[in-house]
């Protein structure tokens, strides 16, 4: 069956960033008849002007009550039965109401709030991974400046907020004086921070294990690596390629199993300095990963599989390739695309 026969319509949020935009394009490519509505908090987000989709500007998920009201009203007005959140903040807003909304006929593929926390709080995730004996960088979670005296991981090291996106707030102190100064500044701006051993290697040593789960049961997993990021020291990937490496894939899935049960989409980032060396945990992204569209190009349309899974596992039959891995070799680079906006109408801003 076509996706348009399995769903009355899909709301894809966060379309101003690669995860949401890639999801939107993947679904449009899977079935041009599937009703799609693109949403973002930014009225100038490029994904709002993708062909073949309606568009809506949503309140920030930081205003949870307003955000949930707007999403629920939009789904009712547009006759949508599926919501695919494109950001951690939106997943966090939806998680507490997801099961209730599902009972009312809305499909919301996010895990329970206590599991979702592992994809938002790096400190909580690293503690769980360490308990499970999984490879992690040496990590210190200071509660105050005096706790920095306990740092034994050497220099340069890494300071990063416990809760952040991309490379926001990430710094690389070269000595203890710099660590004290940078930790204080970062904690003041971003809240609680962790200090970690610096793992050498460029963007091409960072691997992403993407996965689709049905209430704790793995449906499919993927593996790719970054080839270039912006900024070069780490951040949004601008080029990447698919990878075949069972050990890396299994290492990422072990992190997800230790922190689950997951539901919907989740991606683990690992950094392996060189072939044959351990791969160290960086983070979990509890949403579609930024290079999800790479897998669509490689023959595995994960957003389409998600819609099928939510409609019933029986609709996945014949749609996941039986090969290992279930995708072909592929490379992708992101580039600018100029989009002409429609003229402003009276009342628009």
UniProtKB/TrEMBL annotation:
Gene3D superfamilies cross-referenced by the UniProt entry: 3.40.50.20, ATP-grasp fold, A domain, ATP-grasp fold, B domain
Domain ATP-grasp span(s) in chain numbering: 126-311
SUPFAM superfamilies with a match to the protein in the record: Glutathione synthetase ATP-binding domain-like
Name this polypeptide is given: ATP-grasp domain-containing protein
Keywords for this protein: ATP-binding, Nucleotide-binding
InterPro entries: ATP-grasp, ATP_grasp_subdomain_1
Top-level taxon: Bacteria
GO MF, one example: metal ion binding
